[in-house]
Design a protein that fits this description.
2 copies of one chain form a homodimer. Chain A has 243 residues and is of the alpha+beta class. Chain A is built from 8 helices and 10 strands. The structure holds a DNA duplex (30 and 30 nucleotides).
DNA sequence: CGTAGGTTTGACTGATCTCAAGTTTGGTGG
DNA sequence: CCACCAAACTTGAGATCAGTCAAACCTACG
């Protein structure tokens, strides 16, 4: 896993070069950022609902999720995050967190003050636009999740979540989408799809029995991508991956 | 209903003054925008999924919704919009629409090119930050909807939607939150909450029978706001209304 | 090995959906 | 002003997908 400040700077630059045109001055400004590298244990919270957030986490390795809790204690995971994701850009403009961020595996992270990023966004408009664009893609993904949870049945919902995970994983440079290790438990899949873990388990078995996926522990192989896409009703346009 | 370009400019300035500090130059730049005023009939689409969007709609009167459609034709409404809302800010950075926008009542609107707003955001950083902040609040609302649809039962879901509508309506200066006319049909409430219209109808009756709301046609009165808030599990922090 | 967390299974329950038939409402043209 | 029509709302009965509860089985790790 990456753990140094140089790694953080490099990851940051790579991410935003895919999204907007950076000139030499932009890159110099990013290199000047004061990152602090560190690690976080699985299960720990990076942000808690209600916190006033003054630092921004860059994920260098591992998986995290955003979640909200209803009064009666039910947890809803609203997104998963992976290597390269900037977790707190919205807190540059909305300092009070309306959700928590939790590590679902051990994490390698870098940390930088929101004030520094806010200043960077003002001074280097290309970077500011990159930040905005990044949060707009998050919003597009939330819209798709609303559709997924609101309209699709349990099997499609889970299949859709797996497709999204596979495609984003690939886009983040973490390997081919046909075969991968799931970092999340079935309980977490349930919390992300609005189902119970028992039902997630049964639906995963169904997807296996139908020959769409193969499973071995947490390892998942999408055997028939075209059929998987149909079962999931998955159209990746909402991820806005093509710049 | 407001219908002139001056109205549009005024509405725009009022909205962003609540959100960020605008100086005289900012306000001059907004006044220089080339708005076109117009009206839209209920049911018409302002944007369709897949469109390349080059104009931005400002809602001066009436109600609209954002929606996405699953392969089998099910519609999910992902947000409602009302007077003062800027409907297409995300298209400044993501030109291809990943969702549709439809009028749910007759609308009075103003229209301005996304290129002009993009230039404005670059030249006047305070306005750019206002745009960003606005879209971040949208994203926060989507997160709450994911929680609402994923974790709450039918009665709470509908109650939550009504609370949000009431509070946003008040914040938009459209009147007190205790009594209002719903612009949407029960079918549209169903599409927004991931329920069937039949079940929405029954739950509205239940809320009425329990004495939490009173209904007369589309007119709704929240009789007991405290109890309503509890039933809905409604915590307005996610609306980020306090600047 | 022992233990805790994660996964799997079975039997039963229930919230929400489906289908189908009224009933009411609001707008329109005569 | 009334009659008509379409859309919206309401009601009932029966079906089903997903939830609940409880137990057993893995498996990774100390």
């Amino acid at each position: 896993m990456l753990t140094t400040v140089e790694d953080a700077t490099g990851a940051f630059i790579r991410k935003f070069e895919q999204m907007v045109e950076l000139d030499a001055a932009d890159i110099r400004a990013i290199r000047a950022l004061a990152f602090t590298a560190g690690t976080i244990r699985s299960g720990q919270h990076l942000v808690r609902e209600g916190d006033v957030v003054e630092t921004c986490w860059l994920l260098l390795g591992g998986y995290a999720c955003r979640q909200k809790t209803s009064r009666n204690g039910n947890r809803q995971i609203v997104s998963f995050h992976m290597t390269g994701d900037l977790l707190d850009l919205q807190h540059l403009m909305l300092p009070v967190a309306d959700h928590s961020i939790q590590a679902i595996t051990d994490l390698s992270v870098a940390c930088v003050s929101t004030a520094a990023l806010r200043a960077l966004a003002r001074e280097r408009p290309a970077i500011g636009e990159g930040f905005w664009r990044d949060t707009l893609i998050d919003a597009s993904i939330y819209r798709e999740w609303v559709l997924n949870i609101g309209q699709r049945d349990a099997k499609s919902r889970i299949a859709h979540m797996l497709c999204e995970f596979a495609v984003r994983r690939e886009a983040a440079g973490l390997g081919a989408p046909e075969r991968f290790d799931l970092p999340m438990t079935q309980q977490q899949i349930a919390d992300a799809t609005g189902l119970t873990p028992v039902h997630v388990n049964r639906m995963l078995q169904t997807l296996g029995a139908e020959g769409v996926i193969e499973r071995d522990g947490r390892r998942v192989a999408i055997v028939d991508w075209e059929r998987m896409r149909r079962v999931a009703d998955f159209e990746p346009a909402y991820l806005h991956l093509a710049a």
